[in-house]
Design brief:
The chain contains nine helices and seven strands; from the N terminus they run αααβαβαββαβαβααβ. It is α/β, with parallel strands linked by helices. β4, α6 and β5 form a beta-alpha-beta unit.
């Protein structure tokens, strides 16, 4: 076993235990049910914001691009990119947790390239991808060494001039000790030299879920308060060769 693998293996086991607990507690259904209007609004707002960012960066349509989703979960985020012209055989997802990658393979069996693995050791060549996706990944990694390992691997497989698509917590969740906030300072440390465009987004989820039938009215009003936006969404563009 390599030194890097040995050093971060306790963190990998902690992550597995944490998500096993989430699964046993049925958090996906209790907290993130698509039947909740607030949850639907969160996803719709995030999708529109990402589409706008991609359009402004002249990345649409996504037809020519190879895209890697690190921490791909059940594949739903990556599948959204089909709507923007991505080709299924250009879409790759890697996930640490076996149950999630099995779900992704069942939900999207055709053409997508799914793999279970540790993102500290990506099985792809240098500069293989135009876009790398991280949706609520780094906030779940408490070990600083592992976070840096994953960031360095993402940088390695991303082409010069390519971009990281980012969505993650910017605030600490006081009810969940298994997460950490990822602010601008942390991102600059993980991806030095990258050009960052980050936008506060997502109304405080526990609040959004309580809006019920008034969600369409109250969500945008409350989301106008930047302090209630708990996440960042954005693009972080890797420098071209010679720019650093």
């Amino acid at each position: 076993m390599s030194e890097k693998s040995f050093e971060t293996s306790p963190e990998i086991e902690r992550i597995r235990r944490t998500y096993q607990h989430y699964q046993e507690a049925n958090f996906a259904q209790k907290l993130w049910s698509a039947n909740n209007p607030g949850n639907r609004k969160i996803v719709a707002e995030r999708t529109l914001a990402l589409q706008t960012l991609l359009k402004q960066a002249h990345l649409l349509p996504l037809t020519p691009f190879h895209i890697l989703d690190i921490g791909c979960g059940n594949g739903d985020v990556l599948a959204e990119f089909l709507k923007w012209g991505a080709q299924p055989n250009h879409l790759f997802g890697i996930e640490l947790l076996e149950s999630r990658i099995l779900s992704a393979k069942q939900r999207y069996p055709s053409f997508f390239h799914w793999m279970q693995g540790n993102a500290e050791y990506l099985p792809y060549k240098d500069s293989s991808f135009d876009l790398v996706i991280f949706f609520t990944v780094f906030s779940s990694i408490l070990d600083a060494r592992m976070r840096m390992n994953v960031a360095q691997e993402a940088n390695r497989v991303l082409k010069p001039g390519g971009a990281v698509i980012w969505y993650d917590f910017r605030y600490r969740n006081p009810k969940n000790p298994n997460t950490l906030p990822m602010g601008r300072k942390q991102l600059l440390h993980l991806f030095p030299g990258y050009r960052m465009q980050l936008i506060p987004i997502t109304l405080l989820p526990p609040l959004a879920r309580k809006l019920g039938g008034l969600t369409d009215i109250l969500y945008p009003l409350l989301a106008n308060l930047t302090l209630l936006r708990t996440h960042y969404i954005g693009l972080m563009t890797k420098p071209n060769d010679g720019e650093l």
